[in-house]
């Protein structure tokens, strides 16, 4: 199992290793076969220079490797958002706030990572530049055919899972951090959206977009969140038995793959044996989301508003699957959009009432294990399967984005199983309880 950022930082501070040594290890991983299609652009020399800055080991990230999704501005680089449409865009004049905060904390940026074009899919497939294959951070390469790594932060997830980066900066609009976390055996934390600035990032949905990160452990997720949100997480000494947890039955447990069902049930049994209070609830309000989003949802409307001029000039250069989803927004009227805003507010209020008695909810992050890339590869003959898989991968995670909530995905599978994620989640600004509970669950699962 890969060493995490917290332990590596301690080794560097104690003189048992150095940021320079750690950067070389990450570069070796980035250049290895498991990182095929992971990076759109590498910046190894800049990372080496950042790791060599005097005193960097005293900073929170200690000169360790961080990857950046090709969605965020890095000064002097072009932000292409996984597309050919923007490849001639001028270099960014300044770092996005998320990148700037990581840089000030001592990050060594190792490269820009592949992503789904314009972040509009949870599968991870990109017809322009290739698709990274999933890699289990806990148990190594997956058996059998190459499998999807999840999206849209596809390269970010694999960069962390393979050891090329300690943190993968990404975004989450409907699950784009948590899906790669689940399919690669790592951790993804989607904070409450308002806590981290999204300026300097190509938008998908200005309502739902969240800037956040993938890490190797939950304690690393706390470090990354504190840097990105410029705030301290309030730690709680309360044991696992003191937290009130719920498992919602509606929607979240429908049609689970056998591996996911087995891992989720086993995890609940272990947590209950450790004293966790876990109550099963209906949470029927989640079934109402289909009606709320019937006219296309925020992502279609808001992405179309941003892309319509580009589509008019370069529509043929778009991934057809992405283009079709963006163009759904053309048919949404202003009245439909206003109705959607009101419907979302009312739905959030009902959800908050239903969840009020609990500190966090537990669900499978995604209901299926990673399917083979070949089954959803670009090609109209595979479109039906692609959209079926995409819908399943986004089903559970997207509830949290519509809730304006926060969620953590952490691995809960065993050796011999394909990666499975456990999602710990709640509503807006419940980030600290979710992270505290996640730390306790991680500690309990690591005992097994």
TrEMBL record:
InterPro entries linked to this entry: Amidase (IPR000120), Amidase_CS (IPR020556), Amidase_dom (IPR023631), AS_sf (IPR036928)
Which Gene Ontology terms cover its molecular function? Answer: amidase activity
Q: Which residue spans adopt a coiled-coil conformation according to this UniProt entry?
A: none
What Pfam families does this protein's entry cite?
Amidase
Signal peptide range in chain numbering: none
User: Keywords assigned by UniProt?
Assistant: Hydrolase
Q: What is its EC number?
A: 3.5.1.4
GTP-binding is among the record's keywords? no
Keyword Hydrolase annotated: yes
Q: Which residues form the Amidase domain?
A: 24-434
Query: Which PANTHER family does the UniProt record give?
Result: AMIDASE AMID-RELATED, TRANSAMIDASE
Please report the name of this protein according to its UniProt entry: Amidase
